[in-house]
Amino acid sequence: MKKFQSRSFMRSALYALNGLRLAFKSERNFRKHLVIAFVILSAALFLRVNVTEFCLLIFANAQVLVCELFNSVFEYIVDAYYKGRWAKLAKLAKDIAAGAVLFSAIISVLIASLIFAQKFYTIYCNNFSF
Fold it and tell me: In the chain, what are the domain boundaries?
Protein backbone atom coordinates (compact mmCIF):
# COMPACT_ATOMS: atom_id res chain seq x y z
CA MET A 1 0.00 0.00 0.00
CA LYS A 2 1.26 3.46 -0.87
CA LYS A 3 2.33 5.84 1.88
CA PHE A 4 -0.57 8.34 1.58
CA GLN A 5 -3.26 5.98 0.33
CA SER A 6 -6.27 5.64 2.64
CA ARG A 7 -7.12 2.18 3.94
CA SER A 8 -10.88 2.62 4.13
CA PHE A 9 -13.70 4.40 2.40
CA MET A 10 -14.81 6.01 5.67
CA ARG A 11 -11.37 7.50 6.26
CA SER A 12 -11.32 8.83 2.69
CA ALA A 13 -14.77 10.35 3.21
CA LEU A 14 -13.60 12.00 6.44
CA TYR A 15 -10.60 13.49 4.64
CA ALA A 16 -12.92 14.82 1.94
CA LEU A 17 -15.29 16.33 4.49
CA ASN A 18 -12.32 17.90 6.23
CA GLY A 19 -11.30 19.44 2.91
CA LEU A 20 -14.77 20.93 2.47
CA ARG A 21 -14.67 22.24 6.05
CA LEU A 22 -11.29 23.85 5.41
CA ALA A 23 -12.53 25.42 2.20
CA PHE A 24 -15.58 26.79 3.99
CA LYS A 25 -13.48 28.23 6.81
CA SER A 26 -10.66 29.68 4.73
CA GLU A 27 -12.13 30.59 1.35
CA ARG A 28 -14.38 33.66 1.38
CA ASN A 29 -15.46 33.22 -2.27
CA PHE A 30 -16.45 29.61 -1.63
CA ARG A 31 -18.74 30.79 1.19
CA LYS A 32 -20.22 33.48 -1.06
CA HIS A 33 -20.91 30.98 -3.85
CA LEU A 34 -22.46 28.60 -1.33
CA VAL A 35 -24.84 31.31 -0.06
CA ILE A 36 -25.77 32.27 -3.62
CA ALA A 37 -26.44 28.61 -4.44
CA PHE A 38 -28.70 28.32 -1.37
CA VAL A 39 -30.63 31.45 -2.40
CA ILE A 40 -31.02 30.26 -6.00
CA LEU A 41 -32.20 26.79 -4.98
CA SER A 42 -34.58 28.27 -2.40
CA ALA A 43 -36.03 30.57 -5.06
CA ALA A 44 -36.39 27.59 -7.38
CA LEU A 45 -38.39 25.72 -4.74
CA PHE A 46 -40.53 28.80 -4.10
CA LEU A 47 -41.22 29.20 -7.84
CA ARG A 48 -41.92 25.46 -8.16
CA VAL A 49 -39.57 24.79 -11.05
CA ASN A 50 -39.83 21.31 -12.51
CA VAL A 51 -37.38 18.53 -11.70
CA THR A 52 -35.30 19.01 -14.84
CA GLU A 53 -34.89 22.73 -14.23
CA PHE A 54 -34.04 22.11 -10.57
CA CYS A 55 -31.40 19.56 -11.59
CA LEU A 56 -29.92 22.09 -14.04
CA LEU A 57 -29.74 24.68 -11.27
CA ILE A 58 -28.10 22.19 -8.91
CA PHE A 59 -25.59 21.22 -11.59
CA ALA A 60 -24.79 24.84 -12.51
CA ASN A 61 -24.26 25.83 -8.87
CA ALA A 62 -22.21 22.71 -8.16
CA GLN A 63 -20.04 23.50 -11.18
CA VAL A 64 -19.24 26.94 -9.73
CA LEU A 65 -18.44 25.47 -6.31
CA VAL A 66 -16.21 22.76 -7.78
CA CYS A 67 -14.38 25.33 -9.92
CA GLU A 68 -13.87 27.45 -6.81
CA LEU A 69 -12.45 24.45 -4.93
CA PHE A 70 -10.06 23.63 -7.77
CA ASN A 71 -9.07 27.29 -8.03
CA SER A 72 -8.21 27.29 -4.32
CA VAL A 73 -6.17 24.11 -4.64
CA PHE A 74 -4.37 25.50 -7.65
CA GLU A 75 -3.54 28.74 -5.84
CA TYR A 76 -2.18 26.83 -2.81
CA ILE A 77 0.02 24.67 -5.05
CA VAL A 78 1.37 27.65 -6.99
CA ASP A 79 2.00 29.60 -3.77
CA ALA A 80 3.77 26.62 -2.22
CA TYR A 81 5.94 26.15 -5.29
CA TYR A 82 6.94 29.80 -5.54
CA LYS A 83 7.13 30.22 -1.73
CA GLY A 84 5.51 33.66 -1.77
CA ARG A 85 7.80 35.06 -4.48
CA TRP A 86 6.14 36.92 -7.30
CA ALA A 87 6.44 35.27 -10.71
CA LYS A 88 4.75 36.21 -13.97
CA LEU A 89 3.90 32.60 -14.84
CA ALA A 90 2.37 32.07 -11.40
CA LYS A 91 0.23 35.17 -11.87
CA LEU A 92 -0.90 34.05 -15.30
CA ALA A 93 -1.78 30.56 -14.06
CA LYS A 94 -3.73 31.91 -11.08
CA ASP A 95 -5.55 34.44 -13.28
CA ILE A 96 -6.59 31.70 -15.71
CA ALA A 97 -7.86 29.53 -12.85
CA ALA A 98 -9.85 32.49 -11.51
CA GLY A 99 -11.17 33.04 -15.03
CA ALA A 100 -12.52 29.49 -15.04
CA VAL A 101 -14.48 30.26 -11.87
CA LEU A 102 -15.81 33.47 -13.39
CA PHE A 103 -16.81 31.72 -16.60
CA SER A 104 -18.67 28.97 -14.71
CA ALA A 105 -20.42 31.62 -12.57
CA ILE A 106 -21.53 33.51 -15.70
CA ILE A 107 -22.93 30.30 -17.21
CA SER A 108 -24.68 29.55 -13.91
CA VAL A 109 -26.26 33.01 -13.86
CA LEU A 110 -27.37 32.57 -17.46
CA ILE A 111 -29.02 29.23 -16.69
CA ALA A 112 -30.79 30.61 -13.60
CA SER A 113 -31.88 33.73 -15.49
CA LEU A 114 -33.44 31.73 -18.29
CA ILE A 115 -35.28 29.43 -15.91
CA PHE A 116 -36.49 32.21 -13.62
CA ALA A 117 -37.43 34.55 -16.50
CA GLN A 118 -39.71 31.88 -17.88
CA LYS A 119 -41.31 31.35 -14.45
CA PHE A 120 -41.79 35.08 -13.88
CA TYR A 121 -43.26 35.48 -17.36
CA THR A 122 -45.74 32.67 -16.68
CA ILE A 123 -46.72 34.19 -13.32
CA TYR A 124 -47.09 37.64 -14.86
CA CYS A 125 -49.22 36.41 -17.78
CA ASN A 126 -51.49 34.33 -15.54
CA ASN A 127 -52.07 37.09 -13.00
CA PHE A 128 -52.22 40.18 -15.22
CA SER A 129 -53.82 39.03 -18.46
CA PHE A 130 -56.14 41.50 -20.13
Answer: 27-127
Tell me if residue 53 is catalytic.
Answer: no
What's the distance, CA 111 to chain centroid?
A: 14
Q: The pTM is what?
A: 0.85
CA distance 36 to 27: 15
Question: Would you say 44 and 54 are in contact if contact means Cβ atoms under 8 Å apart?
Answer: yes
State the pLDDT at residue 4.
Answer: 64
State the amino acid at position 17 in one-letter form: L
Phi and psi angles of residue 47, each rounded to the nearest 5 degrees, phi first: -85, 0
Which of 55, 56, 44 minimizes the C-alpha distance to 119?
44
- Whether domain 27-127 has CATH 1.10.287.3610: the reply is yes
Percent of the chain with pLDDT over 70: 93
For residue 85, the model assigns a pLDDT of: 83
